[in-house]
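Weekly modeling sync, notes
Attendees: S.R. (lead), two postdocs, one rotation student

Agenda item 3: backlog of single-chain predictions. S.R. asked that every request posted to the team notebook include the full sequence so nobody has to chase files. The rotation student volunteered to paste the first one in as an example of the format we agreed on. Action items at the bottom.

Example entry:
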Amino acid sequence: MKPILEIKKVSKKFRIRHEHQPYLSLRDSFSSIFTGNGKANTEEFWALKDISFDVYPGNSIGIIGRNGAGKSTLLKILSKITPPSEGKIICRGRVASLLEVGTGFHPELTGRENIFLNGSILGMKRKEIRKKFDEIIDFSGVEKFLDTPLKHYSSGMQLRLAFAVAAFLEPEILVIDEVLAVGDAEFQKKCLGKMDEVSKSGRTILFVSHNLGAVSALCNKGILLKKGMIEMKSEMNSVIDRYQSFFTNNTGEFHIDYSKEKNDQGFIRKVSIEDIFGNAVQLIQIAQPWQVRVCFTINLAAPHFIIAIGLANSSNYAFHTTWSPPQDILPGEYEAVFKESTIYYGTGKYRITVGLSSREQAFYTLEDCACIEFDNYADKNIFVRTSGLLLNQMGVEINKVKS
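Predicted structure, as returned to the notebook:
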């Protein structure tokens, strides 16, 4: 059997412009034309490098990796939205893509007109589109607004219609990015169910998502991208295990390569998971106090400065965010210590994101920069329900009811 997709040594290069600080006077602006001081420098950046893999009919492939790993760039190349800088792709089927809300739709056309437009782009005849029309409308739930221009739709309504068109017009290859995160929980469930149905019908799915639970349930094969290159190709669960291993170490200290993550305003140098005495630890026992220490540098004065951390579970569900009181700080080296002693989390690994802001504008965000892991409580007499995120006790009264 021939692959439905062959990706051979695909690379993608971008040019990044680095402009100098703007001049303060008109005279300086004019003089820069003759001196050449106002020119911008360019730097080559390889978003993808030597990507090769084959996709067979009926495969459901999950593509995962940290932000900036090249996942979305790869899907745009596969969808022919942007060409590769090197390498080639052999495609033996029609490709339907759902990469961004509204992709492939025209805002001035109605929902009805956009369905036929999108179907034509996929190479379908009008008769084929009419055959699936009622199913598309029923699934999307936008029947009342069918003859309304798309520009008046909310992002959620656009997503519903776009997904329905992509799924029901039966392309051989369905390419979906993290866009499903826009929809509500009920619609996400419907979409995942439909994608599972599409996969079982023998068609091919390439799915990019940070929701590892959804990827694990839907995909049988996985690809892990790291810094634009393939780190691993294997069964989906094995790839997920490898990805999660990026967020663990044996010390509880996570040093940030801030030479690459640097920001003019400020940046983070280190994040460490600690016990209440300030010792870096790998595991925290449930119901024991713990803390997160963030070491960071501020280069420019930051009025109304706030540092925040967030916790997400393995399915990328962000369930806890906390932040510092606002304060004005000057350039220098700092550390912030977040202490927790009253909220108990279920066993498992949780990923940490840290953000810095000034005047309510975020200037630095570092996702998945550290991992905290909770283990079973030492006292085995205490019942621990590991399926929940939070284990805090609620007030309970048991009263005998008169018979």
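Discussion: group reviewed the output briefly. The CA atoms of residues 143 and 230 lie 43 Å apart.
Action items: rotation student to repeat for the remaining queue; S.R. to check formatting next week.
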